[in-house]
C-alpha cells in the first residue's frame, strides 16, 4: 500500500511538472476513443461471423486501421474494464473486479451469496480519486478532454435511487480529468433510451430523441469547439446494453431485430463522427480507437461463452486503431488487452511515457508503426464473482496459444489450446499436466503480486449433499 501511494505521488508530480512546462508537441494528435458497451466479438460486419449486420462505417474504419483479432477486455463485465482503460491498471490491483451494481451494495451481495458456497471477493464501487486517469495525464500535456456517455464508476445503487443517476457526484468524470461530462454518472444502463432521459448529466433538449444519436451529436459539437487545440474525445456509448430499444423504423429495416437495429444506430454515429473529422481536415492528425468493454450477450461465434464468462466469448472483443498516414492498415494476431491502451496513447502523445513504467500494460505503438513485434507475455483475468452466464467465479491466464481457467467454486482447472481449439471444447489438463501446473503457478504468483482479493467460504451455505 505504501509503495502504491508513493508511485501515485511520483506520477502526479510528473504530470504537474509536464503541465508547468506546457509539454505539448506542435503535432500532438487528437485522440478519439469510442468505447461500446457489450458489443460482442462478432457483432461487427468486418469480422464476418454474423449475417444481417449493417456496419459500413465501422467496417470502413477497420479497413483504414489496424484490426486486433485477439484483443481482450480486462474483465468479462463493464466497470472493471472501464477502470482499467482509464488507469492502465488491472481490475485486481484497482480492487474493482466486478460491475458496480445498480442495487445498493449490501442488497446486491445478499442476493449474490444466497445458496452459494463462496462469498464474492471484496470490491469497491467507484474509481478512486487518487488514481491518475488517462484524461488527467492528457490534460497535463495540454489536451482538452471531453466525456460523453456511460461512466458507471461512481457508486452503487443507481437503479433504486431517484437521483437521476447521481450517487456520488465527486466520482464522476468532471472530477477525474474531463473538462466536459455529458451522460456520465452511476448508471450502468440508461434509465430511458428516448428523451427525457432521467439523467442529471444530460441537459434535456428534444423530446423523443434517441440517446445514441444525442451522444453522437454531442461528440461532433465537441470537436467543432475543440479543433484548434489537441483534444481527447471519449465517446462511451450506452449502446448496445439492455434493455434493447431502437427507433421503430430502424428496427423494421432490420427485420424486427432490435439488437441489430441498435448496432446500426451505433454505426451511423461512428460514421457521423468520422465524417466530421474528415470535413474538418482532422483525420490525419487523429488517432481513433474503437473498442468494447466486454463480450456480447447474444452469442459470439466462433467463441464459447457470453458476457460474464471467462471463456473467450466473455472477454475477447473488437478492437480497431486507426491513424491515417501513421498506422498501416491490416490485421494483428498479437494478444492485447485494455490495460495496454493507456501506455499506447501516452507514447503517441509524448513519444515516451514515464507513467507507463508503473503499469502492467505495454504500449502497442511499436507494433502499430511496424517498428517491432511485441513479445509474447501472459495476460491475466481475476473475476471472483458470480454471473448467470458461463464460466464465472474464477481467474484465468493466457500465454501463447495456451489458456488456463481456475474455477474457485468447484476448485477445478481447465486448460485449452486456443490455436487448435478456439471454441474451448477440450479440457487438456490430463493430457498436459505440466503446462497446466506451470500456468497455474504463474496465475497464483500474479494474484499475489496484484494483492488480488479472494472469495471466502460462505458460513451460511448449507450443502444439499447428505454427509
TrEMBL record:
One Pfam family this chain carries? Sulfatase
What PROSITE patterns does UniProt report for this protein, alphabetically?
A: SULFATASE_1
Domain Sulfatase N-terminal positions: 29-349
Would the keyword Calcium turn up in this protein's UniProt record?
Answer: yes
Q: Where is the composition biased (Basic and acidic residues)?
A: 456-467
Which spans are transmembrane here? Answer: none
Superkingdom, taxonomy of origin: Bacteria
Q: According to the UniProt entry, where is the signal peptide?
A: 1-16
Names of the cofactor(s): Ca(2+)
**Keyword entries, A-Z:** Calcium, Hydrolase, Metal-binding, Signal
InterPro entries from the xrefs? Answer: Alkaline_phosphatase_core_sf, Sulfatase, Sulfatase_CS, Sulfatase_N
In residue numbers, the region (Disordered) covers 443-467
The UniProt similarity line reads:
Belongs to the sulfatase family.
Q: What is this protein called?
A: Sulfatase
List the source organism: Christiangramia antarctica
Amino acid at each position: 500500500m505504501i509503495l502504491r501511494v508513493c508511485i501515485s505521488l511520483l506520477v502526479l508530480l510528473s504530470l504537474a511538472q509536464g503541465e508547468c512546462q506546457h509539454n505539448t508537441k506542435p503535432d500532438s494528435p487528437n485522440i478519439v476513443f469510442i468505447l461500446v458497451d457489450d458489443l460482442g466479438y462478432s457483432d461487427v460486419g468486418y469480422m464476418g461471423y454474423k449475417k444481417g449486420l449493417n456496419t459500413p462505417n465501422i467496417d470502413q474504419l477497420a479497413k483504414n486501421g489496424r484490426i486486433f483479432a485477439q484483443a481482450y477486455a480486462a474483465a468479462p463485465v463493464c466497470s472493471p474494464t472501464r477502470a482499467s482503460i482509464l488507469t492502465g491498471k488491472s481490475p485486481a490491483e484497482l480492487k474493482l473486479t466486478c460491475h458496480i451494481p445498480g442495487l445498493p451494495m449490501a442488497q446486491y451481495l445478499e442476493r449474490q451469496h444466497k445458496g452459494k458456497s463462496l462469498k464474492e471477493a471484496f470490491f469497491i464501487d467507484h474509481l478512486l480519486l487518487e488514481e491518475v486517469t488517462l484524461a488527467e495525464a492528457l490534460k497535463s500535456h495540454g489536451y482538452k478532454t471531453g466525456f460523453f456517455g456511460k461512466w458507471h464508476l461512481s457508486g452503487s445503487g443507481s437503479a433504486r435511487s431517484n437521483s437521476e443517476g447521481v450517487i456520488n457526484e465527486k466520482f464522476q468524470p468532471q472530477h477525474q480529468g474531463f473538462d466536459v461530462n455529458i451522460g456520465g454518472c452511476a448508471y450502468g444502463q440508461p434509465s430511458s433510451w428516448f428523451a427525457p432521459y432521467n439523467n442529471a448529466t444530460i441537459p434535456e433538449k428534444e423530446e423523443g430523441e434517441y440517446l445514441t444519436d444525442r451522444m453522437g451529436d454531442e461528440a461532433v459539437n465537441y470537436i467543432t469547439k475543440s479543433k484548434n487545440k489537441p483534444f481527447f474525445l471519449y465517446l462511451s456509448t450506452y449502446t448496445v446494453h439492455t434493455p434493447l430499444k431502437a427507433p421503430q423504423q430502424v428496427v423494421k429495416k432490420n427485420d424486427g431485430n432490435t439488437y441489430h437495429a441498435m448496432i446500426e444506430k451505433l454505426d451511423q454515429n461512428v460514421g457521423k463522427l468520422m465524417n466530421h473529422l474528415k470535413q474538418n481536415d482532422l483525420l490525419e492528425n487523429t488517432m481513433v480507437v474503437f473498442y468494447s468493454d466486454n463480450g456480447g450477450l447474444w452469442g459470439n461465434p466462433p467463441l464459447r461463452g457470453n458476457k460474464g464468462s471467462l471463456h473467450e466469448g466473455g472477454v475477447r472483443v473488437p478492437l480497431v486503431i486507426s491513424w491515417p498516414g501513421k498506422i498501416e492498415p491490416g490485421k494483428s494476431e498479437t494478444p492485447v488487452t485494455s490495460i495496454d491502451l493507456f501506455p499506447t496513447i501516452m507514447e503517441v502523445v509524448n513519444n515516451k511515457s514515464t507513467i507507463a513504467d508503473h503499469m502492467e500494460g505495454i504500449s502497442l505503438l511499436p507494433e502499430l508503426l511496424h517498428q517491432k513485434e511485441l513479445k509474447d507475455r501472459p495476460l491475466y483475468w481475476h473475476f471472483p464473482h458470480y454471473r448467470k452466464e458461463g464460466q464465472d467465479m474464477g481467474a484465468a491466464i493466457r500465454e501463447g496459444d495456451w489458456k488456463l481457467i481456475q474455477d474457485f467454486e468447484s476448485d477445478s482447472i481447465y486448460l485449452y489450446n486456443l490455436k487448435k481449439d478456439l471454441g474451448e471444447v477440450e479440457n487438456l489438463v490430463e493430457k498436459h499436466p505440466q503446462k497446466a501446473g506451470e500456468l497455474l503457478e504463474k496465475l497464483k504468483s500474479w494474484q499475489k503480486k496484484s494483492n488480488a482479493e479472494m472469495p471466502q467460504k460462505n458460513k451460511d451455505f448449507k450443502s444439499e449433499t447428505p454427509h
